[in-house]
Request: fold
Amino acid sequence: MQEINISPANLEKCLKCDLCTQICPMYSVNPDYPGPKAAGPDGERYRLKDPKFFDNALKYCLNCKRCEVICPSGVKVGDIIAVNRLKYGRPSRPLRDRMLASTDLVGSLASPFAPIVNPILGLGITKSVLDSTVGISKERTFPKYSSSKFVTWFRRHAAREQEKFARKVHYFHGCYVNYNYPQLGKDFVRLMNACGYGVELLDKEKCCGVALIANGFGKQASKQAAVNLASIRKAGGEVLTTSSTCTFTMRDEYDHVLGLENADVRDRILLATKWLYDKLEAGEIRLAFREDFKMRAAYHTACHMQKMGWQQYSIRLLQMIPGMELTVLDQHCCGISGTFGFKKENYGYSKQISSELVDDIHKSGAGVVITDCETCKWQIEGFTGLEVLNPVSVLAQAIDYEKTLKLNNEN
Ligand code: SF4
Ligand code: SF4
Reply:
């Protein structure tokens, strides 16, 4: 892994206004967490002198980047913390953390046995054993594995159909679509096809590495990132995703935290909703919606969506659906932060942080929640019992497929 050094100039920009501390979801619930200003620019001054000043409490940072969004001076607070955790942090439970971070390995082992694995993981006794031995909270239920991977479905049922389209996009599906929720990938293919675009998968795809970065496995994350970057370079055109976290990780964390050169491909890695909105605005794509579609939903802006500033694209697309009654919720961190909220010692913080968002969802009266992040989906489903959908799935349901296809063939 390349050594990343935070420029001292970045620290000097700090105005000591403490806005970041006030917005930090972890600081508000955990007295052991020093907060972004103290953990970021302030602490870095000491660590630059001597790494022994590294404080292991930095493990509590959710990497939500809310501190960076609010900072009036552009200090890369979250990046400073993330880089130092990779450099000096030690996993508290290496086996548990390795297991949670190895999404490709665990997914490929669990998926073929999903009909057995899912009920076993849901049993109270299994949860208690995982809690007491490994340190995974017994309050959590793992997302269900699919018995058929998305890539298997794509190769068997969709790949040939894609050859009919002259225009193509590449799809980075991510682990969640591949091992847990292939329906989102199928919805993406349906939506792209209706818009007159065929879908191609990347030559090779690995987990984006976000869970490896968060759990301190920087070397493995860099290896996987190198595979993804090579595939994206080879693909040539735009590479679309349906996960805000995968998008953010490949665009920003590969460079800022892992120190990998990605400037040549960064602008081609796009969330599907941003791509679609831009094409609609340019008049290159048209959508026709079903007249009988009705949904009362609340949209949750995931922290990494807010960091990218791309929530507006998903929201505007959803607002175009005639039968949609949409409440846009105030931005709150959901508190799960990928694998963080699954750890026994973090469950309480994770639940406390989620409370404002959960209250707002209940107040909205929505029957469905929509968000671009799969781990926000797990948290919201777990604490509200409501169905949580990706905007791409909602759009795939709401369009009149035949009419949309016809409109785009005329284009
Ligand atoms: S990234 Fe989020 S949790 Fe971490 S210091 Fe910034 S605001 Fe706090
Ligand atoms: S918001 Fe920015 S300028 Fe203000 S204390 Fe935090 S890092 Fe410093």
Observations:
- The longest helix spans residues 218-235.
- The CA atoms of residues 56 and 89 lie 6 Å apart.
- Residues 14-20, 36-37, 40-41, 70-71, 73, 75, 77 surround iron/sulfur cluster (ligand 2) (CB under 6 Å).
- The chain is about 55% helix and 10% strand.
